[in-house]
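dumping this here before i forget
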Amino acid sequence: MIFDIIKNRRSIFPAQYNTKPIAKESIEKILEAANWAPSHKKTEPWRFKVLQGEKKAELGEFLSYTYIDITENPKQIKSKKLIENPKKAGAVIAICMQRDPLESVPEWEEVAAVAMAVQNMWLCCTEMGIGSYWSSPGLIKYMDEFFDLNEGEKCLGFFYMGYSDEEPVEAVRKPINDKVEWL
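structure:
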């Protein structure tokens, strides 16, 4: 049932992933789920770049070296984490947004559409037993130096995916009544 999948969706971090590979067919299904997100005026602004194998290691090195270059007092532990996290994932998907060249809708609506696409991915991963996590480090503003981005395209983060042997922690939410005003 969809409500149970929504309630069971969790952030599963790269440190929790095991070495079981993710089949290409599974990644394709997850991306197809993303493609069914709603978008105003059907701009479909989501774009994805799937990184596997050596490309994950290259991403980690780029992130780490960029962090060291732009940071006054870089922390070794953060630099190491930036290198290691992509390698721990079964796949990393760069989450990008292609701005409508006509700007027929406000940019925030296209960002929201991409976020809905990622939510579809996350729910699909949950149903398939694949752990996932959306990371949006400040370093994403430098991704045009790593990826060949189109004009008007920008990176909004990374979707890390991997299988995990750990049971997800049960989430707690404050009651919805605390967040709703009936008029």
